[in-house]
Amino acid sequence: MQLERILNKEHQLGDTLAKSVAQERRADFALCLAMLSPNALDFSEFHLPESELIEPDKSEDALKKELQIGPQQQTAPNTYDMTIGENNSHLLHEQGLTELRLRNCLSPEPLHIRDDKKHIELAIIDNCEPTVQAKIFAQRAGALEIDKPKIDAAGFYDQLASGEMQQAVQLSA
User: Contact at 8 Å (CB) between 110 and 74?
Assistant: First the structure.
């Protein structure tokens, strides 16, 4: 008997497997399974048809357009500006709260007036101890640089591994 083609996948058998199970023909079912490739990577599950996926545009601009989001509110202006509050008070006094809200929706104001993460208000500095105040002022002037203490990590690990510091570690635990 000569086969026309080699059976690799169960879909090549058609509905023969299902019919042999339904009609309780165990010998035919066993023969069909024996004719299939013993390599599991040849099964149909691993050879599904591939279709070209069209990925949607996930850029920030596309999402803003799709969700109809307005302009992004800045966290702080690029330059220090103290007139924001003054302008708002004039607008509120002359045109009312509705106009102020509308203007803020169309062009959102920054959430903060400074773009300095290290800025500390003077009221807070005045409440600190004199040594802390001197340190802050020296740091602002550039006279003081804070260095992290250097540690010999390999030496510290060797002390831990050798047992020199085992008692201290056990006492602290």
Answer: yes
Say how far apart CA 43 and CA 37 lie, in whole Å. Answer: 8
Per the CB < 8 A criterion, the answer to whether 78 and 115 are in contact is yes
Q: Alpha helices of the chain — where are they, by DSSP H?
A: 16-22, 26-35, 60-67, 83-95, 97-106, 122-126, 130-141, 153-162, 166-172
| Distance between first and last Cα of the chain | 78
Q: How far is CA 157 from the centre of its chain?
A: 33
- Tell me the pLDDT tens digit for each residue of 20-78: 889 989 998 888 888 887 777 777 777 777 777 788 888 888 888 888 887 777 777 66
The CA distance from 111 to 72, in Å, is 11
Question: Which of 20, 54, 55, 56 is closest to 35 using CA atoms?
Answer: 20
